[in-house]
Amino acid sequence: MTFENLTKLTQATLVNEPSIASFDAIVFEPERVKMGDLYIGNDPEKIKIALSRGAYAILSDQKIPVYDEEVAWLRCDHIESALIGLLRYYLMQKELEFLCLDPLSLALMQKIVHRDQIIFLDNRIESNFHKIMEAEQHHIIAGSDESFIRKIYPSYTITLAQNAPKIVPFKTTLFQSSFYYKEQLFENIKLPELFFPKLENILAFLEQKGLSYDIGRCEYTPWFYPLFVTRQLQIKPFGSTPSTLVVTQTPDLLPEITAYMQQKASWSRQICFLPTDTGQQKCPDLQTVSYQKLSEITKLKEIEFNFAIIVADLTQIVQTLKNLSKKEQLSLF
Description:
Structural class: alpha/beta
Strand order of the largest sheet: 13-12-14-17-15-16
CATH class of the largest domain: Alpha Beta
Mean pLDDT: 92
CATH architecture of the largest domain: Alpha-Beta Complex
Strand content: 15-25%
Largest sheet: 6 strands, mixed
Low-confidence stretches: none
Radius of gyration: 25 Å
Number of helices: 9
CATH topology of the largest domain: Protein-Tyrosine Phosphatase, Chain A
């Protein structure tokens, strides 16, 4: 691409008069820069690395000194806005289809579909940029960040296929399900009945597009993940303890999850463990324990419960529990 076209697409300004007129690829990691690339970033030290590896151009939204007059130096108002301008240009050429899903549906689809058939976006604009740039013609792109998708592709799809075939429960527990789908029996699937409608819509969409999938690959997602623990909050194998932490990464699902848990396990003692800024309105019928730091989960040791519904990052809470367990083991010596 020529620098003239780049400035038109990104609203950037060429601040010098380089001896070259175009570049090859766009790179965000200086260590991956090759001769002829455009490097995008603001860190002066990383820019120097990119230059040492042969970058032909630098795009930044900061006032960076021109270290090399032979290289093109471009400045924009915001890097993200510049990337969105570039993506819109390439999207017009590739005729991609964008699908916007809620985070849990997106995670379910990622589990069961063959990954090379759909490109899944994350929350990092740099990686999303590369994924979209490398997509083949007419590829399907799926994500959950509606704001980002709207900026680059306003005519995205937000609803899945209508009149989806129904999943017929055969045997269900709180955290696992056996069911029939199109007269085929699937046993001990790691998906609670609560999310059957989401799976039905996903399956209908994939079938409509002629994409292959494997229901048996369903796994728990960070949006609903049971962790079986002892009274001392040590993580144990599935189903081996009377106490379970039900982790979700968003308070948005709390009303659905709490209603499901109260309906399916009305006999049990249930509580909520929520960040202080979540508020108790999300769990009005359950005892709520608030926390500012995840390490405060030790409060649950003093409370008798069968199920504790927790809003937290799954990776962080697992690491917190492992750290607490390790600390307790060390204190025994």
